Amino acid sequence: MCEKHAGQIFPVSLSARRLSVTMSEKDEEIFKSVDLEQQTEKSPEPDINPQESPSETEIDKPSTPSTEAKAESTPSTHTSAAKVKWTSSAEQFKLKRFFVLRPGTLDHGMEDVKALVNPTEDGAVQSVWLMAEVDHWNNEKERLVLITENTLLIFKYDFVMLNCEQIQKIPLNYIDRICHGTFCFPPRSLLTREGEGVRVFWDKLREPSFTSRWNPFSVDYPFTTFTYHPVKSANEELGHLCDIQNFREQLTSAAQKAHSKNPVPGKANGVLLLNQPILVEAYVGLMSVIGNQNKLGYCLARGNIGF
């Protein structure tokens, strides 16, 4: 642009010089002054136009992220992806410690507990569940739970040695309340628990004694509490086996059928469904804190212990 404007200005000055040969000195001075004024008026144009044209083109162009911004955004996405991958791998490593996830272990345990069911007394097996039982001192314990036509069976199964260590049988026609909700503790308690659970009551007229409340090994409570097993997110099959909602629905249906089929004299027939917080009357619970953090109630690979 500058060269073009300059090409337009210089011929005017040359013609003025040629005309100045025939003109008088006075006219030449007047002509030169006019010529200079024209040059001063036209000269800013080549200086402004080259500066304005790039700015206008830059404004009209769509803004695109610079290479530096791209370089900064790329590492952030890589770091976030790396963190997610590391977190998922750490969770997978923790889950692999559970013996229940070893190939064939859970199927073997389910077949063992089904073999312990008495068809004449308990009836046919309707469903099998993998749960975590929460006792009155907030201790978690790994359990296999069976719902049959007449009985709710709770098995303490050793997935390391593949044998059943304890069985608890609860007749379905004795179940009078099923409570579902989040966990809560007394106001002055130092313990906390996240998530939700299901508490099954079978004798609402009997309250636990004072010695039973303060005995961590007491088993004469008229209720039991279940919550999600830690491996519920390992795969879809385990998600169904550990589903609290489906367990509550199937247990309610089986208990109502048992009440109508074999009612208990002196007890109200039917099951009362409650949606309210589940109270765990534990205050300090140092043993439960240590046990739950280290998963002492589960069959885990503890690693090599030696001296």
Mind explaining what this structure looks like?
It is built from 10 helices and 9 strands. A hairpin with a 2-residue loop joins strand 2 and strand 3. The longest helix has 29 residues, at 67-95. Strands 1, 2, 3, 4, 5, 6, 7, 8 and 9 form a 9-stranded mixed beta sheet that branches. With 307 residues, the protein is α+β, with helices and mostly antiparallel strands. Helix content is 43%, strand content 20%. The relative contact order is 0.12. The termini are far apart.
Question: What is the topological layout?
Answer:
Layout lengths: L1 H18 L5 H18 L1 H17 L6 H29 L9 H11 L3 H4 L2 E10 L5 E9 L2 E8 L4 E9 L5 E8 L11 E6 L8 H4 L9 E5 L8 H6 L2 H18 L10 E4 L2 E2 L6 H8 L14
Helix pairs in contact: 1-2, 1-3
Uncertain runs are: 1-73
Topology, number of strands: 9
The global form is: globular
Question: Structural class, from secondary structure content?
Answer: alpha+beta
Number of helices: 10
Largest sheet: 9 strands, mixed
Strand and helix order: HHHHHHEEEEEEHEHHEEH
Rg calculated over all Cα atoms: 42 Å
Distance between the termini: 88 Å
Strand content: 15-25%
Helix share, percent: 40-55%
Mean pLDDT: 77
What would a concise description of this structure say?
The chain is of the alpha+beta class and 307 residues long. Helices cover 43% and strands 20% of the residues.
Descriptive tags:
307 residues; 20% strand; 10 helices; globular; alpha+beta; single chain; 9-stranded mixed beta sheet
